[in-house]
Each structure stands twice: as structure tokens, then as C-alpha cells.
């Protein structure tokens, strides 16, 4: 593998686009389930296509991750921190992939279409089934909460590397050379 100090520019763009989309999605999801006003339908109409966009972006991101060189973590990091960094990244990838699929399956089980606009409707990925809906609905919530917690830990670690350690980890994803 080639030694590199920065992630591939396409991977950096997808990373930051996904960061914004996931944070927006988490807040839209909370607002969506917290209101019975007319705003609910607007939030749902944003939530579904944004979830599909995140699903497509995570697939692109995984492809980029496996086909481009990635910078190594600093040798100064203890082994347990390197292991936690790798584990948390794979947990993020798993949840970013699973969450939209769970949502899609949940809506399919409930018999609700996923409309993306302009008459584009995704096919259901499972048959209508109230028992499955009863499982998938809380699972969608729990994965969202776990994703939010993991994203916050990821953000805290990124800020630690950027502001305290200044070891190049943060700049490898921003592309900004450290002074």
C-alpha cells in the first residue's frame, strides 16, 4: 500500500457530505417523531430521500475506502487507541449501511411506499408484515441513537486530534496541511 498523508479527495468530499447529511437526518428524525403538526409530512418527505442518498453515499464511500490508499494512524497512538479507532470506524460504516436499510424494510413491512419525488417510488424490500414492523420500528430508533452516540465520539476524537494532539489525523481528512 502506498504511504499517504491524506485521504483521497473524493473520499474526503464524501466523508464531509455524509457528515452533514447524517447530522441533518438525525435531527430531522427526532423532529419527525416529535411532532403531529403539518410539519410532520414535510419532514417525512425529506427523511426518505435523504436516507436513500446516505445509503448510496455509504456504498460509494466503502468502495473508495477499499480502492484508495489511506493514511496510517500516528505511531505515537497506543495500540488500544488504534484498535478503538478502527473498531469505531467499522461500527460507523455498519450503522450507516444498516440504518437506511432498516428504515426501508420497516416502511415496506408497514406497507408504506418510499417516494423519492417526481413519481419515483422504490420497490418494497420485504412483504407487508406487522410482526416485522413491530421489530424494525424500535430497531430503527435504537440504531439511530447508537449512530448519534458513535458520531459524537468520532467528533470528540477528531477535535482531540485537531486541537490537542495536533498529530495530523484531523488534517488527513480535511486536506489542510498542519503548520
UniProtKB/TrEMBL annotation:
Localization in the cell: Cell membrane
Membrane topology of the entry: Multi-pass membrane protein
Domain Cytochrome b561 bacterial/Ni-hydrogenase as annotated: residue spans: 7-174
Record protein name field: Cytochrome b/b6 domain-containing protein
Needed co-factor(s): heme b
Family the entry assigns: Belongs to the cytochrome b561 family.
Cross-referenced InterPro entries: Cyt_b561_bac/Ni-Hgenase (IPR011577), Cytochrome_b561_oxidase (IPR052168), Di-haem_cyt_TM (IPR016174)
Species per Swiss-Prot/TrEMBL record: Franconibacter daqui
